[in-house]
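PROTOCOL LOG
Step 1. Enter all chains and additional molecules of the complex.
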Amino acid sequence: MLRSTLRHVNVAFAVLDELSDKRLLVVTGKGGVGKTTLAAALAVQSAREGLRTLVCEVNAKERISQLLGKPEVGPEVTALDENLWAVNVRPQEAMREYALMLLKFESIYSAVFENRVVRYFLRFIPSLQELVLLGKILFHLREKRPDGRWRFDRIIIDAPATGHAITFFSVPQVIVDTVPPGAMSEDATWMRDLLVDPRTTAVVLVSLPEDLPVNETIELHEALATRVKMKAQLVVLNGFIPERFTPEDMPESVPQALRDVARAHESRAQMSITSLARLKTLGLRVVTVPRIFVTDFGRSAVEQIAQIVGAPR
Amino acid sequence: MNPIREALASSDVVITVGSGGVGKTTVAAAIALRAAMEGQGSLVCTIDPARRLANALGLQALGNAETEITPATFAQAGLAPRAPMRAMMLDMKRTWDELIERRAPPDKREKILNNRFYQSLSSALAGSQEYVAMEKLWELRTQRDYPLIVLDTPPTAHALDFLDAPNRILDFLDNDASKWLLTPALAAGKFGLRLFNLGGSYVAKTIARFTGTETLQQLADFMLNISGMNEGFRERAHQTRGLLEAETTSFVLVTGPMPERLDEAIFFHTLLQQNKMRVAAIVVNRVHGPVPDALWEEVARLPSPLQRKYQETLKENDHLARQDARGIAKLREACGSTPLVLVPRFEFDVHDLKGLYETSHWLWGDQVLEVATPGR
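Step 2. Run joint prediction.
Step 3. Record the structure below.
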């Protein structure tokens, strides 16, 4: 028991090492692997370390506020806890904010952007929606308080799943390549520069101990590096099942049906070990998070994971 | 009768929908495989950006072309289908190019293919894959003679776009704004849209600040060039929408039993029904079956050091089974008359034909999964 606790403490420090100096953490992976929970856990831990932290969901059915036992935050940056803010970035509001930033005056926004013809036009500008979503998030990364310090020390993005993540983070580059000079392409340029800067940004890949999610993690790592030039720093393997039964635990005297239960457990444990080994071939640190058994998956589960991904103070 | 078998008897298009990571692709491939086994030739088509289907079928790569799964591959898995099964992964860029080459007037083709808007629209950019997926579905449905097409769709957020794609094309063409922009230029037979005829107008200048003047010009050129394809698009969009609503098209909604997936599934179910789409079944994938009572009695008789390990494992299994049962009860309540089909969580990863066939037993109703009592 003590051994396993110590092991987690070691792991915890390792996580901090990988991510401690990064201002932008991008959490991504295959759908259903636990990205949102991990983003919430990283945010809780980051805030607890004293960093002003903003956690962003991207045009999703909002879940982080609920996981942390708070009311829905919606598209406005909302304080959840000490040092912790959350927002669910949505295209319509982000577009409005972006336009207002450029135009400065609300009346111009209404006159121009609420014009039917203009709206129609904007809808057909490819990826403008993704650009403003990303733009809003990255804008908060550059925002300062009156005393010159960052408004947010760290921003955590609960990013879209695999294929959509690649599309999403490629948008600035695509716009730089395709859209002629103008405000849009200027903004796309600084966004791209921030995303690919390894001093600022770290990608956290989330996976599960099964073949397909692991395959996808490996492909995603490759695609992010080559197509988007974003560097992953850490892999988190959720739902890890440790070994429990030795062959001696399964003697003939144990009824067949129970031995089947033990074998099933061991086969999943084996899958966890194989998955871990495969993920380690990426050359990144892999942190394992055990499967968590709670009736209502909420704050307490997030806190357990936060303990694993952060160092105790 | 089992709802999926029933759907296949009356459908030639089955569309699997649902959020990411629930095993949608596996279910799509398993349905296509089972159909082929039963003598209904099938094609499974995925538009998912990740190469899940290739993995699930044990194929190295899929292209825009339909690839028949060889008898040898089937034989390796110990299977002998009574009709051929094919698989394909949609190549967005290529489908777009084919579409333009086929439908654009000859003098416009190059202009369209070289337009930056077209290039970004047709390759990396979000939202456009849904347009071509519908186009491809229509092509496959009308130009090939597959008794069954199983179409796998991207995860929920995008699948909404997918359902909406034919409408968006229609909207694009029927929109008053587009008429207002295009008509004068078309009538005058010259380039340059009305927006720019406004010259230094306030509106044009303001948008240009946002996007750059050249961007607007290119967008205008693009729209002008594809405007010759309007009729074809319009007709196609109507037909595709019709195809989605047809009696012979069935939707299979796939979900996992965990709470966060269920909310999305319920939302999606409502949406499909509102859109008059026929939902044949909701497949709940990877369900943990109940722990049989007999096991608790047996574990109580084990010697103590062993008992603890076994008991802990049973408790975990029981926890998962009850959690799933609660989810299934919730789904049943929210989705009323749509039948649920439960597929158990397997002890192995489904990534080959054998695993797909095993999955199909549950989809097909050869085997039926019992659910735990929700309790606690």
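Step 4. Note key features.
The first strand of chain A starts at residue 24 and ends at 29.
The domain at 2-309 of chain A is CATH 3.40.50.300 (Rossmann fold).
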